[in-house]
Amino acid sequence: MNKELALLAYVTRLGDNALILAQRMVQAVTLCPELEEELANANFGLDYIGQARLFYSYAGKLEGKGHSEDDFAFLRDAHEYRNVLLLEQPNGHFGDMMAREFLFESFYLLQLDALQSCDDTGLAEIAARAVKEIRYHLRHVSQWIVRLGDGTDESHARMQQAINDHWPYTGELFSADAVDVLLRSDFNGPDLDVIREQWQANVAAVLSEATLGKPDDGWMASGGKQGRHSEHLGYLLAEMQFLQRSHPGANW
Amino acid sequence: MNSREWPLYEVFIRSKAGLSHRHAGSIHAADDQMALDHARDTYTRRSEGVSIWVVRSSAIVASDPAEAAAFFEPAADKIYRHPTFYEIPEGVENL
């Protein structure tokens, strides 16, 4: 793999992460516990859709085959998606959603922060814009972890279970493959080992404030970044892509 | 009101530096930090503000509408208290 292909793959992964999480958040619209939280969730989902559009537009430009952001979003099958497995997991209850978002955004914020100073200007500019949105999301979601973890016996138990359930999907965030290595070496991209240490410390601090236990690192799922997904992604894409697949080029 | 409902907060937004905070509306939240977040997500989505105050609605002491006459009408006939004899320079928008 040359450096141009690595950059394209890396930007596509960022777009896929943003879009798949956005779609999960969209699925939760009308299901949040309060009207105000409803707005927060929908706002955050829209932030991610905005980021996905930027990443896909840039990927289309890098690829140079005339593919639009819609082509990336609606006309690729599950095996062509490169999002991490954590994000395609079903929504479950509100605590599950908060756990998934918390674990991911604790990583994503560090990733974007590092990308702001990478050597590719296009990617650095998108990261600089996205990092502000994610900093706020993480603040919001961390408060929920503390609120539910340090809440009632019931909410504590369910929040702990949610963290435990999502923990095996966090290993993939830090396992560098050829794309990550090339981005690091040729574009001054993020050092995943450094990010992992910061992530561990940040996550541990919030969990401790939430009186929650940090799960042990046992077996970790992997494969999303290489296109090997869980069954959940197929259903998610079927719903998301239905309209464009049935009515190609539909617009309104 | 359902007793399980979150407490009500009043939201005040400063729309730009130099102006004072103005009442924007109210939201429900379980605690102060959540109130700030909800106010941000509800009332500043379209860049309406640079600063937010939230306060529990129950902490606000309000005048009684039934006492409005005693409260406010005595000021109405004291024209000498109104600064109507000054000319406001043109171009001053916020005084």
Task: Describe the model.
The complex is a heterodimer of chains A (252) and B (95). In chain A, 70% of the residues lie in helices and 0% in strands. Chain A has 252 residues and is mainly α. Chain A has a single domain (3-213, 224-246), classed as Ferritin, core subunit, four-helix bundle (Ferritin), CATH 1.20.1260.10. In chain A, helix 1 (3-27) packs across helix 9 (178-187) and helix 5 packs across helix 7 (153-166). The longest helix of chain A has 29 residues, at 35-63. The mean pLDDT of chain A is 96. By secondary structure, chain B is of the alpha+beta class. Chain B has a single domain, classed as Ubiquitin-like (UB roll), CATH 3.10.20. A 3-stranded antiparallel sheet of chain B has the order 2-1-3, with helices on one face. The longest helix of chain B has 12 residues, at 32-43. The relative contact order of chain B is 0.18. The model of chain B has no long low-confidence stretch (mean pLDDT 88). At the A-B interface, helix 2 and helix 6 of A face helix 1 of B.
